[in-house]
Amino acid sequence: MDIGTIIGTGASALGGGLFGLLGNIGTKVIGLFEAKQAFAQKKEEWSHEERLLDMQMKAHAAETEQELAVTASSGSWSGLGESLKAETAIGTTYPWVNAVRALVRPALTLGLASFLCAAFFAMPAGDIDRAYVADSLVFAAVTAVVWWFGDRAPARRNR
User: Fold this and answer.
1) 10/141 Cα distance (integer angstroms)
2) What whole-number distance in Å separates Cα of residue 146 and Cα of residue 157?
3) Cα separation, 35 vs 29, whole angstroms
4) Least buried of 1, 41, 43, 78, by fewest C-beta within 10 Å?
5) C-alpha pair distances (Å), 114 with each of 33, 55, 82, 111, 122
6) Residue 140's CB: how many other CB atoms inside 10 A?
């Protein structure tokens, strides 16, 4: 094995790592954007609820009617709390869906590696393109590890 092949394979590994890191960073940036969007939507919902409560209070002139509005409002909030408890008890989806989701990344990784290995071993030993396939295999493996599985780092705890 000559020095050029070793340098080429090292460059493929470095390039795959950088590409995977960029993909992981892109995933995090998109996640932050989605969280901002979800917060803005919640803020708008809260503002709408606040306006509704304001109009409701203005509509009730008498003290007894205002007391009824407060009672209805507190009942509404406790109903909302119970509704949220019931929603979390149901879960997000069926267990088989979670199993399929969990197997997507490993299946893609194994499929990609199998395809590239089959292409590598199908070529004759002296073929010049075999080195390119080997570099592609290293690039794809490092990209998969850094991007797909680097995403599963433990979440930070807020103190």
Assistant:
1) 13
2) 22
3) 10
4) 1
5) 35, 64, 50, 5, 12
6) 19
